[in-house]
Amino acid sequence: MSQLRYFARGPRAAVEAAYARLDAAFEAFGAPVSIFEADEDEQIFEVSIYFEEAPAQAADILALFEPLSPETEHIDASIDWMQSVLADLKPVRAGRFLVHGAHDRARVGANDIGILIEAGQAFGTGHHGTTAGCLTMIGDILRRKAPRNALDLGTGSAVLAIAVARLARIPVLATDIDPVAVDVARGNVRANGVAARVRTEVAIGFNGPAFADGARFDLIVANILAGPLMRLAPSMERRLERGGDIILSGILARQRQAVLAAYRDQALYHRRTIRMGDWVTLHLSR
Prior knowledge:
Blueprint: E1 2-11, H1 12-26, E2 33-39, E3 44-51, H2 58-64, E4 71-76, H3 81-86, E5 92-94, E6 97-100, E7 113-116, H4 129-144, E8 150-153, H5 159-168, E9 172-176, H6 179-191, E10 198-202, E11 217-223, H7 226-231, H8 233-239, E12 240-252, H9 256-264, E13 269-276, E14 279-285
Parallel strand pairs: 6-7, 8-9, 8-11, 9-10, 11-12
Antiparallel strand pairs: 1-3, 1-4, 2-3, 5-6, 12-14, 13-14
């Protein structure tokens, strides 16, 4: 079994523009799009999009890369590339949280809140600016407030749900649209000793059995993408308890104002922004 990757390298502005076009075109289809700095000295970036099988609209995809010159390659999906890459990653600190692999347990200090996240098939190892921003914001809010429950919407690896459960010791509902991600999240929850407090469920937005009881939450964390976050704003407002807090990420700095406007329309107002690289994490409340 293999995946097909379309990719191109070039200057930052052109690569970011291609990334935005690809992300907008294929977000609904679930095709992963990535961007990273390939050469720091030369400021060369690389953008990629992955497909399980050759897409019918190949010419249209190539056009989305312009003026870059895209290439294609087949990736052997039987090789655990995630494991081989993450094995070399160092622990990530965000406030008191230290996200680490099993081989770095010894680096967790007496005052640290260690979160064990091994290589897996779900996003959220702490190395991405959005995850680190959310962890930092969670720590800041929980220093000042004591929520009774929380929701991690689009949980991925469950790193954020685990962080809330470890620090606040409250019930957390962790949901994701992807059943594979939920399986990975469930394993991470068990590995971190918070299975009694974190419930993992499959859900599309706020639709699914996990939300059938109409529960409201004191704290909602959602690290997904700007488009879905904007569409979910009315549902977020309905599910937020009076006096509650929302943490949003997966948002590029240039998308910040549009996201804030969508939530301002729901009488949810900006309290703070954390920026890490090109990404921002937002704190909103009533």
